[in-house]
Amino acid sequence: MGHSGSNQGSPIVSGPLGALCLLAALFLGPGCVAYRPVFEVWEPQELGREDIEGGEVVYRLGPAGEKGLSLSVERRVQVQVAHLGLEAAILRVQVSSGVTPPAVIVRRIESGSPAEAAGVLPGDEVLACQGTEVLSPFQLESLLREGTAPGDVVRLRLRRSAPENEARVFEVEARSVARTLPVISRQSVPLVLPSRDAGRRYAGLLMGALPEPYASRLFGDSTAVLVGSTALGSPAYLAGVRPGDRIVTVDGERVGGVQELDRLLSERGAEGSTVRLAVVRSDGEEFETRLRLREHGKRLKISIPLIFSLESTQEHSHWTLGPFGLLMGYDGRYLSSSADRRPDYRRGFHMVLRLFETEWWPTGQRTELLWLIELGSS
User: Fold this and answer.
1) Rounded CA gap, 235 and 7, in Å?
2) Could you tell me if 205 and 241 lie in one domain?
């Protein structure tokens, strides 16, 4: 599937007012400052699933720290554990001398369960299980899951309060039954990151390479360079590159690895060149796009107190006229990924104490008059 990248810039307002902003920028250029973009599209992406005995493995790409990427390997399996059919809870009692030690109390008994057949009642205090002192409901559950097999006889030591307020300690035996429960374990595998980070500098994308065993397992290839994030308004974002994409060729040449791609982007970026990328989305869809490399991430900031202010970055533009923007103002910002990967953005304009205010975006618009009358479509 083909995809044509856009070279549209930051959504700063056009027309006479835009010309006024640019004219002010020419005279107040020294007010410009540089920054690195931090507002990025961070969207954990599912890369694939693999069936295993008793369950499946789910692979997801996501962030690791501020600049890293990792592969989350999540194993989901169904296991059979010993089950008695009782639910326990912690009970703490406040007395005049303080708080009594916490007790593990039977909260609920399932009808027809082994615990009911053994005579266990709600309100009984569980003192020990299989000869081990029970200090918490979680410990009791662990003793049943890890120390007991389905079908084993479980010995419980209980304390029960009698009607005449005298506690009775006794033991019961219950033959456990099998119960199937989902068990999830997770492992985080760091991706190999480029040494120069030219992708972020010249394209606005954070990329990394999967370790070879996982690349072969998921994509049938020893090399898999994946996109973890794209900065809003950056060349990569405008070209339609999104998190989870796999870069397979550059200018028709197969990508040999993340360091090779990093070197190529560094060389081409310094020249301001345009590169042609072949990308495979996480859903298997293929497309080509052109990406005009440039050093991005500049911020233009101009301020004339109580008269005019302007701030423009790659993903956001904002200006106001008059004290605190009471006369008029504008705000425009790029939106997160759309389904068709268009570089969508939202714009808003207001004037005269916000007696007139309007917003418009790719799928609709809204206008408000005199603070009360609202018109809109979507």
Assistant:
1) 7
2) yes
* 281 found inside a domain: yes
Residues 203 and 228 in one domain: yes
**28 CB burial (10 A radius; 0-12, 13-18, 19+):** middle
225 and 304 in a common domain: no
| CA 76 from centre of chain | 20
Give yes or no for a contact between 315 and 36, defined as CB atoms under 8 angstroms apart.
no
Look-up: residue for tokens 């070879």? 212
**What's the total number of domains in the chain?**
3
Within 13 Å and on the Cβ side, how many CA atoms surround 300? 21
118 class by beta-carbon count within 10 Å (0-12 exposed, 13-18 middle, 19+ buried): buried
Give the length of the chain.
378
Residue 74, in any domain of the structure: no
Range of the domain at 162: 85-175
Q: Global pTM? A: 0.64
Question: 165-208, pLDDT tens digit by residue?
Answer: 567 788 888 888 888 878 788 999 999 999 888 988 899 989 99
